[in-house]
Amino acid sequence: MIGATLELIIAALLVLGGIFGLIGSYGLLRLKDAMQRLHAPTKASTVGLGAVLIASAIAGDSWREVLVTLFIFLTAPLTALYLAKTLIHSHINPADVPPAANGAKWAAQPPVAQKD
Amino acid sequence: MIRKIFPHPYLSLTLGILWMLLVNKLAVGSFVMATILAIAIPHISAAYWPERPRLVRPMALLGYIGLVLHDVVVSSITVAKIILFMPPAQIKSAFITVPIDLPSPEAITLLAGTITMTPGTLTVDIAEGGRSLLIHSLHAPDPVSIRDDIKSRYEARLKRIFA
Amino acid sequence: MIALALTFAIGCFAVALLLNLWRLAFAPTNTDRILSVDTMVVNGIALIVLYGIKTASGINFEAALLFAFTGFVSTIAFAKYLLRGSVIE
Questions:
Q1: What is the full per-residue pLDDT of chain A (116 aa) written as tens digits?
Q2: Where in chain B is the domain with CATH 3.30.70?
Q3: Nearest-CA distance from A101 to chain C in Å?
Q4: Among B42, B71, B115, B117, which has the minimal tally of Cβ within 10 Å of its Cβ?
C-alpha cells in the first residue's frame, strides 16, 4: 500500500511527535516560574501534535489533517497570550515589568500599577 | 465587476481552500460549492469587515510563512533542550520591551503570533496605541540581541508585506 | 515499523496526559490549572489522531477538529473568567 520510504517517514514523524508531546508536558511540571511554564506546552506540544497530524495525513492519504494543524498553530499564540495576561494581572510584580516605549501603558496592567 | 463579486479576495480564497480541505476530495461538485461559499459568506458577513487588509506583496507572505515554519521547529528544539538539560536555577528569564512600528492591526497580530511561536519568546502584552509589545523570554542571557533579532528578522519583513 | 512507532507515540502521549493530570491536581496557580487543561486537550487530540491511524479510518478526523474547537474556546473562557470575573460581558 505505502512504500518503505514513506513508512520510514511516518514512523519518524510519530516518534518525534511523541517525544515532543512528552517534553511539553514534562516542562509543565519541571519549570519553576509560572511564566516559564507557559513556554513548554505552547511550543513543544504544538509541534508534537503537528508532527502526528502530518504523519496521519501521509498515512491516510488525505489532506484534511492540515485543517487541524492550521487551527492548532493559529490558536496556540492566542491561548498563550490570554494565559500570560491572567498571570501579569495577578502574579507578576509590576516593578519587574519594563516600561513601554514613549511612556505608554501596558494593556493588561491595572492603572495604579504605573505610578512609579 | 470582479471587486463587486469578491469584496474580500483573501477571505474568499481562504474560505474556498478551507472547504476543499474539509470535503477532502478533488471533485467538480465540491469546487462549485467552494466557489458559492467563497462568494456568499463575504457578502453575508460584510458588515463585520468594513476594511480589508492592504497587502503590498502577497507573494512575500508565502516566504514569510516558510520562514516561520522553519523557526517553529528550531524553537521547539531549543525549548526542549532547555527543559530537559538546563538546571532550573540557571534559566534566566526576562521581560523585554520591543518597540514596533507596523502600519496595520493585522501586521501587529501576525508579529505577536510569530513571536509566540518562535525561539524561546512569548508575547505577553501590547501597549496602548500598539507601539510596543511586551515579550517574555525563557532564557535570555542577552535581552538586547533578542529584541534586535525580532526587529530585523520578522518586523522588517512584515513591513515590506503590509502597506 | 509503523505499528511500533504508533505504540511508542501513544505511550508518550498517555504519559504526557498523566503528567498533566498531576499538574492539574497540584498546581501552584490557577493559570497553571488552565494551562494543564489546555495541554490535556492537545494531547487528547493527538491520541484521537493516533487511534485514527491505528484503525485506518477517517472518521476520527471530525472528533479531533471538534475537540480542537471546544478546547480553544473553553481555555479562552477560563482565562477570561480569571481576568474579568465573567465570561460574557
A1: 568 888 898 899 999 999 999 988 888 888 888 888 888 888 888 888 889 988 888 888 788 888 888 888 888 889 988 888 888 887 777 777 777 777 777 777 665 544 44
A2: 58-161
A3: 25
A4: B71
**Beta bridge partners of residue B127, listed in sequence order:** A106
Residue C53 lies in a domain: yes
Residue B151 has pLDDT above 70, yes or no: yes
Report yes or no: C71 and C46 within 8 Å, Cβ to Cβ.
no
* Percent of chain B predicted with pLDDT > 70: 98
Structure-block grid coordinates of residue C18? 498523566
- Contact with chain C for residue A44, Cβ under 8 A: no
Contacts of A31 in chain B (CB under 8 A): 83, 88, 91
Q: B45-67: b or e for each residue (b if 16 or more CB lie within 10 Å)? A: eeeeeeeebebeeeeebeebeee
Q: Mean pLDDT over residues C6-22, rounded?
A: 92
Domain span at residue C80?
Answer: 2-84
Backbone angles phi, psi at A62, to 5 degrees: -135, 155
* Alpha helix positions (H), chain A: 4-30, 34-40, 46-60, 65-90
CATH code for position C42: 1.10.287
In this structure, is residue C89 part of a structural domain?
no
Residues 6+ apart with CB under 8 A from A32: B88, B91
Return the CATH number of the domain spanning residue range B58-161.
3.30.70
User: B44 pLDDT band (50/70/90 cuts)?
Assistant: confident
Chain B neighbours, 3+ Cβ pairs < 8 A:
A
Q: What are the C-alpha distances in Å from C77 to residues A86, A104, B104, C67, C86?
A: 12, 28, 27, 15, 9
B110 has a chain A CB within 8 A of its CB: no
CB-based contact, C67 to chain A, within 8 Å: no
Looking at the 3D structure of chain C, how many domains does it have? 1
Location of C-alpha cell 514513506: A6
Radius of gyration over alpha carbons of chain A, in Å?
A: 20
- DSSP type of residue C58: T
Closest partner CB to A38 (pick from B76, B91, B122): B122
